[in-house]
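Exam review. A common question shows you a sequence with its structure tokens and asks you to describe the fold in words. Practice with the pair below. Do the first one on your own.
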Amino acid sequence: MQNRTMATIITVITSLCCGCFALMSCIWGVIGLTGQPINTTLNGVESLEAMPMPLALGLMCLSVIFIAIPVAVGFFTLRKKAAAPVVVSSSDEPLPPTA
């Protein structure tokens, strides 16, 4: 029961951490792909530019990767492990001769 609880906790933590980052990068990727101008102010100088397309595509790919990480963690930590085969040993059987 202890291992199952720890696996659930790990899955929730990775889902929250990776999910927040994936959501933000997906939002910024969509903004960049649609060509919406981004207003920035640096040292009192205001600039209105669109995000470069390769950066927007990179953010979209990054968001897909960060969505896949919690799915993989959940799959590998919460799946049922195969039961170990039971070895039946009888002490009545004689041992084979050694060479």
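Now try the second one, then compare your answer with the model answer below.
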Amino acid sequence: MLETVTLVLELAERPMRAREIHAAAEYLAGEPLLWNSVKSALAACAVGNEACFERVRRGYYRIKENRVR
């Protein structure tokens, strides 16, 4: 899940709404994905020193610049 969400945000190159990320992740995966799984991946990876996403504002995320891969 995390890899798919990361790929969506890398391809977008702009902040996206969580619902947009979910729809794009489903498209890339070629199958339905649980909304809660996408939401959890975004929330978990948007905090801490090793965060890979930034929460721009409520419900909007982008790839964190200078993130550790």
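Model answer, second protein: The chain has a mean pLDDT of 92. The chain is about 50% helix and 15% strand. Full marks require stating both points clearly.
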